[in-house]
Amino acid sequence: MRLAVIMLAAVCSLATAGSKPPETFDVWLRAGVDIDAAGHVQDLQWEEQSKVHALIAERLAPIVRRWEFEPATVDGRPEPTQTGLVIHVLVDELADGSVALRLSDAQTGPMASTLMPPNYPMDAARGGISAIVSLVVEVKADGSPVIREMTYESRDDKHSVYRDVFLASATEAAKHWKFRPEIVAGRVVPGPSVRIPIDYCLGSASRCQRNQQARDAERKLPAGLHMGEASAVALKTDIREQVI
Fold first, then answer.
1. Which part of the chain is CATH 3.30.2420.10?
2. What is the pLDDT of residues 202-238, one digit of tens each?
3. Domain range 113-219, CATH architecture
4. Which of 50, 52, 54, 110 is nearest to 85 (CA)?
């Protein structure tokens, strides 16, 4: 853990250069988790991320393996479950330049793993049209999505002239997306959906970033991380503010 602290401290010092006061940073870790019928963790598979994420995950793994879950059920009987897991870690920069790590939250459910970005429709780009297309998908056992709902929103496109080309762009991109499904007793869980908003944004990078940050704050997840709206299992262990 000493190396992790050194690396994290280096990251924090670069981010806060110029004698800024200590800050708290968010780190999100993604994994797949296998839970048995008793609610115990049987296997944990971390998603590949940065070296800092990997070091935190190494420290966190034995803690996660001790967590207890309310298991999924089939016809009232507890069953083994495979699901996605997202863990929110808070990194507190201390006055002496070191850092402290503590747990904030954890969520389970179907999870997006690979989201190929869509192509911006050329006609819309030439016309200076920005839009947001939101897809609601269900995840099949092989990790591919099935689109159940699509919505279109644009302040620039007053008469929805470009609606079809934006929807076509989003539909084409979704064909290449991959998800980690939630599977109970060997079968994919029906029903829980994942909402994926696509921001087709023209203009300055700062404006697009502000818009994205506002939507992320509403979702309570960072950009690029998307979880199902429900899960067949629930975390029983109280992890909030636990120091790691």
1. 113-219
2. 877 777 777 777 776 666 788 788 999 899 999 999 9
3. 2-Layer Sandwich (3.30)
4. 110
